[in-house]
Amino acid sequence: MKTTEVHHLFKKRFGYTEHPNIDLFKSWAQKEKFSLKTLFPTINKTEAHHLDLSVHSNFINGKDDFNNLTFFEGKIMDLQKTIPNKIIAGGYLEKRALYTSSIYERKTTEGTEKRNTHLGLDFWLPENTPVHAILDGEVVCTSDDSYHKGYGGLLILKHQLKHFHFYTLYGHNTIKSVLKHRIGSFVKKGDEIAVLANATENGDWVPHLHFQVMLTLLDYTNDFPGVTFESELEIWKSICPNPNLLFKLPNL
User: Is 250 a member of any domain?
Assistant: First the structure.
């Protein structure tokens, strides 16, 4: 589907071709700064090391290496030893050749199109790492997405500001740690909200947090895309602005 067609569909269904609050969010985020120590206080690190997992990455040799979890986790651990004071992170708007499940595909008149462009930041940290709220928020989604290449334990928070609201998404946690929250309950900045899971319950991924910002949930209630089709990138990047606008980390 062409970009113009995608924009037309969004305009018809939701009333916009670029989210109307994108400039408000960027303006607000420019004045704020959030620390990785708030998100991961037990890790006690404030800097990040960018990991390139794009189609041009030299870190791994494509989808087979990535989906060999023992091999890929070993690569992450070896890299971490060389940068002990930084959190390995990256991935926003990164085009990847890693999404092999059929849940990332759709049929078009021209064949099969894959969702391959990442809409969040990945923080590669060990299982059992606690995740904490970077801002006060309302729990609007808790879900067990532990199917193959799903989110595992998924949590979404809503953050209400003076003139607009936005959402943050936390994927690949233990099921127990996210389902402890009640929909409609509130968390405070600094509260522990989730715990990173291992591959057996995080959707068959090497342990990490998928962190994403959204200005709307569209029609989603128990899920939200973390990856998009290239043909829809322009609209999705206005719905899901760069999470690093909050952290302002170099090179991400």
Answer: no
The amino acid at residue 127 is E
Indicate the number of domains in the chain.
Answer: 1
* 251 occurs within a structural domain: no
**Which SS3 state, helix, strand or coil, does residue 23 take?**
helix
Tell me if residue 80 falls in helix, strand or coil: helix
Domain harbouring 96, CATH code: 2.70.70.10
CB neighbour list of residue 108: distance below 8 Å, 6 or more residues apart = 1
Domain assignment of residue 113, given as a range:
3-244
Residue 213 lies in a domain: yes
**DSSP secondary structure letter of residue 232:** G
Q: pLDDT tens digits, residue range 112-130?
A: 567 689 999 999 999 999 9
Q: How confident is the model at residue 56 (pLDDT cuts 50, 70, 90)?
A: confident
The model's pLDDT over 173-213, given as tens digits with 9 standing for 90+, comes to 999 999 999 999 999 999 999 999 999 999 999 999 999 99
Q: How far is 158 from 243, CA to CA, in rounded Å?
A: 15
Cα–Cα distance, 85 to 29 (Å, whole number): 26
